[in-house]
Specification:
Blueprint: E1 8-9, H1 10-23, E2 28-32, E3 45-46, E4 56-57, E5 61-65, E6 71-76, E7 90-94, E8 106-109, E9 113-115, E10 121-123, E11 131-132, E12 143-145, H2 153-162, E13 166-170, E14 175-180, E15 184-185, E16 195-196, H3 199-209, E17 219-223, H4 227-238, E18 243-247, H5 258-264, E19 268-272, E20 274-277, E21 283-287, E22 295-300, H6 304-322, E23 332-335, E24 346-353, E25 359-362, E26 379-383, E27 394-399
Helix pairs in contact: 1-6, 3-6, 4-5
Amino acid sequence: MSADTMPVDWEQARTLAYQAGRAAAGPAEPVSLPAADGRTLAEPLRALTDLPAFATSSIDGWAVRGPQPWRPVGRVLAGGVAPPLAADGTCVEIATGAMVPAGAEALLRIEESTRDTAGLVTGTPRAAAEWRLPGEEAHKDEELLPAGTAVDPAVIGVAATCGYEVLNVFARPRAAVLVFGDELLTAGPPGAGRVRDSLGPQVPGWLRRGGAVVDPAAVTGPVQDTLEAHLAALRGALTTADLVCTTGGTMHGPVDHLHPALAELGAEYIVNTVAVRPGFPMLLARIPGADGRPRFLAGLPGNPQSAIIALVTLVAPLLAGLQGRPAPTMPQVEAATDIPGRGDFTHLVLAHLDRSGRSATPVGHVGSAMLRGLSNAQGFVVVRPGTRVTAGESASFLQLPLVPGERP
């Protein structure tokens, strides 16, 4: 495994990361409907019956047959089964959601009906049918949602309507975080040559938003700056994690031991450095697992903003692939100001969206080591290599993996 290579194009790097994850997607597992929230369908969701399975009343009123007046011969409520209306001039009282009896020719709203002293019902049914027909929403065995669909409460509701009790979903990838750097503090303010670790506390949150499971005990560091300590930490994390994210050590300095450790572990580079600014250098490697399934290591730069760019560049597509989801896409936005390029590198520019979500304005405090700008942004305007974006021009927008309601 050679550590010397030309930087990979940013878009190609994202594709390679996704393909690697998709090829290694974990096995499907059945989970209960409530537990499926946030998971990914491993097979298409199909209708188990026609939906509705039977003709269903949309009103409270009367199911009638033949010419009026109609003589009531019974009542049918939701959940009940009415005998067929066999004779003209008869009706049954019916509730919303109840099964329409065979032989019924129309439904009459209760508020548009009258009943005489003899108990006979009269009224004019509306021209439009007042019931839902079998198969109106879906037919038996029809595909409602494809494999790869992210399960949310609405999907769970559809599955429950069909009659499912469990869903087959992809296993969620397990992730661990190793923080490298003897200069890092884990408590108190920075000073005297030491800086506070900001990645150990935040990277697990980004990973969880991407669908990974991160146990608090799976966050380790700072790991001592020796090759032996790096190898021990990596081997320990790889015993339980499908993905290990490391912070720092991606260069080739005197205390950067990640590349030698990967060589010792028999790793294969999927991506080794990406032509993107900020974010240099980052890497993604595949490590053989004892069970025959590969494990992955994402090397994030030590500078905080660069580390987050590595997460959205390599880790987000990898996690999507590992869960059988479609590759992430980027919406188009309009640049509110001119945005320069970075020569032969893709330039990712932290930006804030307006309330419409269609106009992006670059934020301040965006140095590679800064996080203030990140806290005021929803993502990055993507400036392609060899180009610049002018005000009013359309550009791709790489969204941060935010949960609903965050930073509107």
